[in-house]
């Protein structure tokens, strides 16, 4: 940035400037800044951003003559008077109650003067700082479930029909929680086991996630975010499904005189929690390496329709804005 020889430095101002630039409020994360820019800033949904300071560390250690600050938002319009933009006379900006639609480039222009003491001249200087600000969320929980069922053979059409019926049963168990069953997929293998001949078994896997139709309406009734609620619902849904399979073991032992051809293999139920991102958000540890593991809002031109965990590129010419769940 522009400097100026012969300007006195105020120790108090230098210290305050360093503190202001380094200060970060809870729930916000900084990326690595570059020369002439403020760098990347990651703000958790519904929290306030850190104070974005309209100067670099070097300039903060100098006395600034006649400073004037002007902030513009991602739409290119001045932020003065915007309800969500908290501006101070010293050029600091705090974004209040951050949401995905507020993501984008925030630019500040600092106009000031330099007095060249040797030539007794005043020079007008303009310095520009650019911050890329992204909304992020903590990961949601999706549960990968695995179960096994015996089968009469691996080439039977009845196997696929059974898996589809099983899915309907599980969805009905958790429908009131607005959770969904993704999948299931299955493979059939022939096994040799002592005293069991050579039965075939269906290895079935599926995911339980809290993003079934209606989840957005449920979240909209909450005062702020609903991460805790969605995570709790997914956990409860998985527990219900686990109880369903445990009851299969009891039924086989006490309620059936003849064991069905397709039946649950005792003790085969297992659950693995998987971190995922809700639609409109994704993880990219290369693009957003300073917020690795965060679910960062999808940038314009990308979208995330499900809980797959990454943002996809829109194929058409028309591009979506921040946080898109589909392409226009």
TrEMBL record:
Main location per the UniProt record: cytoplasm
Signal sequence interval, chain numbering: 1-28
UniProt-annotated location(s): Cytoplasmic vesicle, Secretory vesicle, Acrosome; Secreted
Keywords: Cytoplasmic vesicle, Glycoprotein, Secreted, Signal
UniProt cross-references to InterPro entries, sorted A to Z: Ig-like_dom, Ig-like_dom_sf, Sp38-bd, ZPBP1/2_C, ZPBP1/2_N
Domain Ig-like: 38-126
GO cellular component, one term: extracellular region
One GO term of the biological process aspect: binding of sperm to zona pellucida
A Pfam family of this chain: EGF_Sp38_C
Family: Belongs to the zona pellucida-binding protein Sp38 family.
Protein name: Zona pellucida binding protein 2
Organism: Gallus gallus (Chicken)
Originating gene: ZPBP2
């Amino acid at each position: 940035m522009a400097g100026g020889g012969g300007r006195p430095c105020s120790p108090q101002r230098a210290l305050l400037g360093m503190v202001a630039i380094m200060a970060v409020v809870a729930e916000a994360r900084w990326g690595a800044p570059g020369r002439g820019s403020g760098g990347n800033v990651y703000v958790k949904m519904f929290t306030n951003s850190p104070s974005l300071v309209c100067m670099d560390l070097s300039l903060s250690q100098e006395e600034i003559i006649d400073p004037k600050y002007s902030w513009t938002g991602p739409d290119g319009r001045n932020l003065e008077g915007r309800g969500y933009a908290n501006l101070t006379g010293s050029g600091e900006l705090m974004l209040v109650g951050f949401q995905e639609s507020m993501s984008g480039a925030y630019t500040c222009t600092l106009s000031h003067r330099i007095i060249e003491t040797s030539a007794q001249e005043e020079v007008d200087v303009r310095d520009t700082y650019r911050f890329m600000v992204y909304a992020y969320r903590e990961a949601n929980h999706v549960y990968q479930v695995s179960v096994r069922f015996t089968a009469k053979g691996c080439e039977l059409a009845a196997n696929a029909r059974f898996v589809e019926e099983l899915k309907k049963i599980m969805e009905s168990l958790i429908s009131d929680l607005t959770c969904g069953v993704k999948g299931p997929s299955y493979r059939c293998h022939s096994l040799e086991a002592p005293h069991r001949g050579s039965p075939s078994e269906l290895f079935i896997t599926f995911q339980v996630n809290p993003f079934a139709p209606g989840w957005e309406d449920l979240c909209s009734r909450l005062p702020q975010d609903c991460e805790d609620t969605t995570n709790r619902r997914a956990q409860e849904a998985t527990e219900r499904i686990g109880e369903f399979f445990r009851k299969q073991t009891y039924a086989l032992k006490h309620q059936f005189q003849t064991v069905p051809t397709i039946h649950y293999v005792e003790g085969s139920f297992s659950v693995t929690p998987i971190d995922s991102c809700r639609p409109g958000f994704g993880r990219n540890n290369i693009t957003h390496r300073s917020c690795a593991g965060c679910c960062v809002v999808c940038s314009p031109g990308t979208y995330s329709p499900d809980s797959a965990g990454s943002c996809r590129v829109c194929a058409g010419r028309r591009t979506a804005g921040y946080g898109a769940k589909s392409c226009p």
